[in-house]
Design a protein that fits this description.
130 residues; 4 strands; alpha/beta; 2 helices; Macrophage Migration Inhibitory Factor; single chain
Length: 130
């Protein structure tokens, strides 16, 4: 169950957030070769000066992403996802790629729990809740 966390320093409309989470979920499913039912997404909105990246101007829009995922995907898959997420953030939130920062944290499947069960290790083309 990935937990995909997005922190931005701007207020977002609900319609924007709805489109964004659907874009993020679909992208994750496609690139990481998994179903969508177990994908958790958080969006946290902060005031303009509450997030910073050293190379950004203080008044710039910023997005920090913490992506907690299961082990098993190689660097190439993680990099593909990172670049696609930067495009999605840019198109939905108007945040330049240079003002985005992504951190991946990998866990074993047993670190992710839903009411039905904990998840197994990742397998290609999986449906973890089936």
């Amino acid at each position: 169950m990935p937990h995909l966390q997005f922190e931005v320093n701007q207020k977002l409309a609900n319609i924007t957030k709805d489109k964004f989470v659907n874009d993020i979920r679909d992208c994750y499913s496609k690139i990481m070769d998994t179903d969508t039912e177990h994908i958790a997404i958080s969006i946290r909105e902060y005031a303009k000066y509450n997030l910073t990246i050293g190379r950004a101007n203080p008044e710039d829009n910023i997005c920090l992403m913490n992506l907690d995922i299961r082990e098993g995907r190689g660097l190439e898959k993680r990099r593909e996802l990172a670049l696609e997420y930067m495009n999605i953030v840019n198109s939905n939130f108007n945040i330049e790629a240079k003002n985005q920062y992504i951190t991946f944290t990998q866990h074993s499947g047993e670190d992710f729990h839903l009411v039905e069960k904990y998840l197994a290790g990742w397998e290609p083309n999986e449906k973890p809740l089936a």
